């Protein structure tokens, strides 16, 4: 009987880790999208509030803003990928230690709950930022 419970626990541990790894990727992309939305709104409001009267100054400001947003996006993709891989490894270790201590379900609940919370915050940011203008 003990052997069957260990088997089910191992399957649960592996499936939960795969699910959480997928959610990490979704969260990284949601954070990236929310950051892009915030940067776009900030840059657009800054350009619209320029005191310059010539159209050339606003065009230059738009080009600078698009370069800045593009750079931040590339940094977020690279950094987000590294952080996602590191967090996937940390979560795997956390689940493995939880399986050994008999607290696997608690740990799965904590990790999935925090990942869902991060996703909800990102969606709220994306929803509320356009309303803030």
Main attributes?
3 helices; mainly alpha; 133 residues
Report on the architecture of this protein.
The protein has about 130 residues and is mainly alpha-helical. The protein has one domain. It is about 90% helix and about 0% strand. The chain has 3 helices and no strands. Helix 1 runs antiparallel to helix 2 and helix 2 runs antiparallel to helix 3. The protein is elongated, with a radius of gyration of 21 Å. It starts with a helix and ends in a 5-residue tail after the last helix.
End-to-end distance: 62 Å
Fraction of residues in helix: over 70%
**How much strand content do the residues show?**
under 5%
N-to-C order of helices and strands: HHH
Count structural domains: 1
Computed over alpha carbons, the radius of gyration is 21 Å
- Poorly predicted segments: none
Mean pLDDT: 85
Report the count of strand segments: 0
Shape: elongated
The major beta sheet can be summarized as: none
Q: State the helix count.
A: 3
Backbone structural class: mainly alpha
């Amino acid at each position: 009987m003990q052997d069957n419970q260990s088997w089910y626990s191992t399957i649960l541990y592996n499936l939960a880790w795969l699910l959480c790894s997928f959610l990490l990727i979704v969260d990284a992309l949601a954070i990236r999208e929310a950051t892009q939305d915030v940067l776009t709104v900030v840059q657009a409001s800054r350009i619209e509030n320029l005191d310059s009267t010539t159209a050339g100054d606003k065009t230059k400001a738009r080009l600078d803003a698009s370069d800045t947003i593009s750079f931040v996006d590339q940094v977020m993709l690279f950094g987000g990928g590294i952080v996602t891989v590191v967090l996937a490894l940390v979560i795997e270790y956390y689940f493995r230690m939880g399986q050994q201590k008999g607290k696997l379900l608690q740990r799965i609940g904590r990790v999935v709950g925090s990942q869902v919370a991060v996703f909800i915050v990102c969606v709220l940011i994306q929803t509320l930022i356009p309303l803030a203008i």
